[in-house]
Design goal:
Bound molecules: carba-nicotinamide-adenine-dinucleotide
CATH superfamily of the domain at 1-31 and 81-121 and 167-238: TPP-binding domain
Distance between the termini: 13 Å
CATH topology of the domain at 1-31 and 81-121 and 167-238: Rossmann fold
Shape: globular
CATH architecture of the domain at 1-31 and 81-121 and 167-238: 3-Layer(aba) Sandwich
Oligomer: single chain
Radius of gyration: 18 Å
Number of strands: 9
Largest sheet: 6 strands, parallel
Helix content: 25-40%
Amino acid sequence: MRAEIEQLREMIENSDNIVFFGGAGVSTESGIPDFRSVDGLYNQKYKYPPEQILSGSFFKNNPEEFYKFYHDKLVLHDVMPNKAHLKLAELEDQGKLKAVITQNIDGLHQAAGSKNVLELHGTIQRFYCTSCGKEASATDANACNGVPHCTCGGIVRPDVVLYEEQLNDSVIAEAVRYISGAEMLIVGGTSLNVYPAAGLIRYYKGKKLVLINKDSTPYDAYANLIINDKIGGVFSQI
Ligand code: CNA
């Protein structure tokens, strides 16, 4: 493991156009469960499977159940960025890292100080009314016991991309631009199972593809360096 971390350190040192692509595993060391780990949300029991609750049609038809799950599992209090978020912000500050592309919706990269963050699946830091479109307060929505409503009477929702919904075209175009122009691509904390997001890493054309993940992924065969360990722990050593 030490040799792999040394190799990663050298690759970073010799690169000045790094892009990071990550997922839920980046935030597990902050205490936020991912979806597919053994202790992830998909392996816990609910009345409905999480992938059904987190779909556009379920939200429309069962906002009460959606918000029960949301308040129970997705609103986490007192979570802080971990060593992975902080290292990425530091690399951006040094001019080495050009963008963080994330599937996460927790806002922890920005909380760590990252500025150029492309949120493929939106964020729970923003809410809006499904009737009039007006922006709504995330603090009020998170504090609400039940389904939050706008002053116009419409239901308020988080600005996240639910299953069955389309990703934002301009965010995808930006992500493709950064990945295809990157000298080094670090992919971390993602099962690379959720499409179209996972497919974006195919746009990388360089020779420095690093995968840092607890488990294996479908893209392991394409990596130049694989580190099967916790990403916060890895980044704290470089
Ligand atoms: P996923 O499918 O749950 O995969 C997570 C991956 O990370 C797994 O392969 C784990 O083995 C790995 N992993 C877990 N902890 C660590 C760690 N500390 N270090 C390294 N690897 C680790 O999640 P993906 O992001 O791949 O799937 C995309 C979904 C998950 C997106 O739609 C997200 O919005 C959604 N999600 C986001 C959050 C969040 O915002 N924090 C939390 C849970 C789910």
